Amino acid sequence: MIGILTTNFSLYYDLIKTLKNREVPYISLSYNEPIPQNVDVILTSPEEIKKIQFEKKIECFPISDLDVIIDKALLLTHTGPFELMVGIDPGRTPGIAFFGNGRVLRSLHVKGPEEVLPLLQPLLDEYAPEDIIIRIGHGAPLMRNRIINSLQILTVPMEIVDETSTSYLKTRRSDKAAASLIALTPGTPVKRRYSLTPKKGEIRDLQQKSRKLNGQVTISKELAKKVLTGKMDLEEAIRKQRKKDI
Predict the structure, then answer these.
(1) Do 66 and 45 touch, CB atoms closer than 8 A?
(2) What span, in angstroms and rounded, lies between the C-alpha atoms of 174 and 192?
(3) Domain spans in the chain, listed from the N-terminal domain onward
(4) Are 149 and 164 in contact (CB under 8 A)?
(5) Which value, in Å, is the radius of gyration of the alpha carbons in the chain?
(6) For a FRET experiment, which of 12, 80, 88, 110 has its CA 20 to 30 Å from that of 234?
């Protein structure tokens, strides 16, 4: 059980909201009452951390990513060393799953490959790089490579995982579930940067998608390459193509 003990109303409100959104059990604590035996870890403010006589406690700074804080609190509810595994199912809207000591902490989607790095950067404020491993599925090569290249700034171990075992999940459109399996599956270590050169088939597929989306224009190969390498989004490419065709 996670306990919240703080007189900082703003922090209290934000913690309650985040915990409820994630459906994580919690209990509100008071300085006037003893801490229940079922409380494993306490969340509080930096100003109050020294006042609380409890072994497992975490201070929540104003700029903290509360999801990362709650991940850490969930890890502290179990004994033993930290082991945080991040699974990424690559694609246009990557699925991401966080596992700590073998249990799922949270799973979510982000809007694109370049959104993965900002999501994972706060982890290094709470964990040492050697306590984290990032595993990414081998599918969607260009999207995968964009994610891998962007994450190398974190200096965290990364592995590429064979996604064959997750294919049945994708048929059900469960990218988050696929990301969970990826997180738990050992892969091949990443030791270099990867090519971001789109293949002819990828360019052709995106051109067809652009035509289907607007029903009027098909973006050029040059614009398709920029979309595929993350230099612009598809909507912007369609607008640029439309202006060219006028």
Answers:
(1) no
(2) 29
(3) 2-76, 84-189, 200-245
(4) no
(5) 22
(6) 88
Handedness of CA 145, 179, 94, 115 (dihedral sign): negative
Q: How far is C-alpha 132 from the geometric centre of its chain's CA atoms?
A: 13
| Site of tokens 């059980």 | 1
DSSP H or E segment with residue 167: helix 167-170
From edge to edge, which strands make up the β-sheet containing 2-4?
A: 26-28, 2-4, 41-44, 57-59
pLDDT digit string (tens) for 4-41? 999 999 999 999 999 999 989 999 999 999 999 999 99
Identity of residue 84: L
Contact in structure between 223 and 237 (CB atoms under 8 Å) = yes
What digits encode the pLDDT tens for the residues 171-192?
444 666 788 889 989 999 999 9
For helices 234-245 and 200-214, the axis angle rounded to 10 degrees is 70
For domain 2-76, is the CATH number 3.80.30? no
